[in-house]
Amino acid sequence: MSAREEKLRKRGLKLAREAMAAQKAAGILPQASHVTRELQQEADRLKAEAESLKDQARREDLSIWKQEKVKSTKKGGRSYHYWTATWREKSLTRNVHLGSCAKMNAEEALQEARQEKAISLDIKP
Question: Using CA atoms, how far apart are residues 46 and 42, in angstroms rounded to an integer?
Fold first, then answer.
């Protein structure tokens, strides 16, 4: 969990507690209900932003590298290079073939890996 995500989460929880206190005071003071509504909306916004950062961090946590495949033929061996991505899903390691190094560069492979991981973990893009 990133420091920014943790800070947003804590601030959201604090605002939610303040909203509950203001809601209790709303029975006594009529203007407290307006403050309650504003605090709750801000708390909800911060919680959503923290969740978005969490999903983004999960999508970024992966590794890519070039893999070499050697095929033997009658005339000798031929080697091919392709991109592979790896990430953790619970307690398992997932390896995904991304495509040929001749058809995409490292940045394109990284973008493809992020998309594959988002699909695999059911994260909104």
Answer: 6
What are the sequence ranges of the domains in the chain?
Answer: 3-59, 62-120
- Residue 98 CA: distances (Å) to CA of 8, 51, 57, 104: 35, 28, 20, 9
CB–CB of 57/49 below 8 Å?
Answer: no
Nearest CA among 58, 39, 41, 86 for reference residue 1: 58
Q: What is the pTM of this model?
A: 0.54
Show pLDDT as tens, one digit a residue, over the chain (125 residues).
Answer: 567 777 777 877 787 777 777 766 666 666 666 777 777 788 888 888 877 777 676 777 788 989 999 998 888 888 999 999 998 888 888 899 999 999 999 999 998 998 888 888 776 65
Which residue in the block uniquely carries the two structure tokens 């059911």?
A: 122
Q: Give the Cα separation of 11 and 54 in Å (integer).
A: 16
Position 12, amino acid? G
